[in-house]
Batch of 2 targets.
Target 1
Amino acid sequence: MPELPEVEVTRLSFADAIAGGTVLSARMGKPLRWPLGLEPMALTGKTVLRVRRRGKYLLLDMSEGLLLVHLGMSGSVIFNKNLPSPGVHDHFDLVTDLGTLRLNDPRRFGAVVYASGESDPVARKLLGHLGVEPLGREFDFKVFHEALAKRKAPIKQVLLAGDVVVGVGNIYASEALFLAGIRPTTKANRLSRPRLMRLHKAIFDVLSRAVEKGGSTLRDFSNAQGESGYFQLEANVYGRSGHACRICASTIKAIRQGQRSTFFCPLCQKP
DNA sequence: AAAAGCCCCTGGATGC
DNA sequence: TGCATCCAGGGGCTTT
């Protein structure tokens, strides 16, 4: 489910509310993608200092150590006081004196992992290979250009891999390539500098716009206050195969790339 | 080093 | 109504 915008919207929706909260108890439901790394109750007494984001990971800095939270494909988080007793897909509760953070994740591709710090091996394994943050100052065009020049894979799949830029998932990869006028199958190293400049800008624009709109709610995404996002209403290509392109009225096409769907306009997006 | 496939898991939509 | 099949916002791991 969640790409960078949804994770960022989630973060913004509870970061201030949980900051300063001291853990009273914690519980795990069914196992998630990776083990927590300690007994849930060992989190008791730690304080949540702040919530950051790295790629699609939420980082909860604790008074000692940090929690890495990933929403996988179907995860969502809610933060509130007096939550009802956990449902079948509620797999992690962090009860603090300011409220409870609860992860709901039917498919359980998500994870909550404790690390002693960012140099902890488990944190390095999950975060160490990540590319640049697209909404930060470090998203430099020259670096982007040089990284893509080394890649012969289709540009869509390079974007998805997340080792050049983080946070661009299946929706926003298709959307950014549409805005840049680039065919998703074009090999990354075959793109000219002007076209890459358009792509660089498109990635920033589409992700920031999606954050503004509260993310995309396709099936079940909502922020920690239970509110839906609206960016999907603005999608130009994602999920629109067979429909008319909003720009040129051509029929939007769907193809498969690496076991994932890709959507594009055959006229607006040049190989 | 980089690319391509394979899984992990559940639920909703679709088709017969 | 019942059952099979396909598809879904991710990404680490293994194999080429």
Note: The longest strand of chain A covers residues 48-54.
Target 2
Amino acid sequence: MVAPIYRIGRRKASRRISAVIDRLNTSYKRHELAEISGSDPFRVLICGILSARAKDTQTAPVCRKLFELADNPASLLVIPKAKLKSIIRPIGFYNQKTDALRKTCRILVENYEGDVPETFEELVKLAGIGRKVANLVLSVAFGKDAICVDTHVHRITNRLGWVESNDVLDTEKQLMALVARRRWRTLNYVFVRHGQECCHPLSPWCSRCPIEKWCAKVAVTRCR
DNA sequence: AAAACGGGGGC
DNA sequence: GCCCCAGTTTT
């Protein structure tokens, strides 16, 4: 166990951050949703909407099935609403997610000629897109310097002792100041994977954790 | 049985 | 800021 990063020197902190991300990156080489969506803006957007409060293992098959039927907003709108619902049902929240998908696709067709807008302000105006998904799209689809903080990133970075915060937005700000920009994109994927495989909310498997020696283990049983 | 799941929207 | 959404898997 190590001291939290906000209590050690800047240079040492920066080395530790690199080490952690490198190690996670080799431990979790595959990111299923990332492989499905690639960097295609429409697909990243749809994966983002569907993945809210759902597990990757559930979301991935749904995204695959959906992209077989439609890989752009116009063709998604052709799918009957009932059919769309039945596809989304397994991951829960299917009424909201179906409506959000259709509404967003209508906006894309009507206002953006079927393309996905490239600014945060425009993205969050779409249905089913909040801060997290907007940043995901900016980062993954458009290669912009956005950092995407979800509950996994929040929980893990707090446990590691990288930031000290109860608030996701605050965690996002602290991480932007702490982590090198070129790492932002991978950070989200490796932490999500790590959160699902190992660093669970209530009982993390520290004994099989690849980065345990760099973890401050702050609030291990509390952080969500 | 309960908790968890890559949040977002309406109020 | 609070509460709801909803079905499936894991503990």
Note: Residues 53-55, 57-58, 89-96, 200, 202-203 of chain A lie near DNA strand C (CB under 10 Å from a C1').
